[in-house]
Amino acid sequence: MEKLTKSHRPARMDALLSSDAVLAINAEGIITFANQEACELTERTMNELIGESIVEVYASIELARAANRKIYRAGGSIVDMESKTKTKSGKIIPVHVSASHLYDSNGKYIGGVGYFSRYKPGMIEGLEGIVEEAQLKARVEQLEAKMDNWKKLASGLGKISKEAIRSWIKSYTPSKKR
Questions:
Q1: How far apart are CA 61 and CA 56, in angstroms?
Q2: Is the pLDDT of residue 24 over 70?
């Protein structure tokens, strides 16, 4: 079984502890990573999410296709796109998605990573007087930094087995006292 190196751990811990739902997919659109917030947002366990198509997370196939189209048109990344996700019980939750396509060193598409934030009224629309330009710029820079971090991290994802990731996540998941 492969072990994650220490160089992978800080970025993975950041993803695991993120207040946003974080999902990573392979080139076929299959979820290969999900943090706890992604599990809570979708009402699914990590085992239910990993191996599932990313399309199942969106409220409809049309919304999943729209997100993918927008990423391609934007040159590979989007920030704070409005969309909707669907929980396991069928509840529709408005979200903002920031996502990026990931490529290997030869420029071949290898997957993507996305951050899903629960929708907060006034977050994007009606920016006049609600969100100062500096706040918006800071949020964009924060999300771009997360994307850069994920791009660096993802360059080695193809070499790491799903079992190694699960083992590593389990070792860093605090046990809940009952």
A1: 8
A2: yes
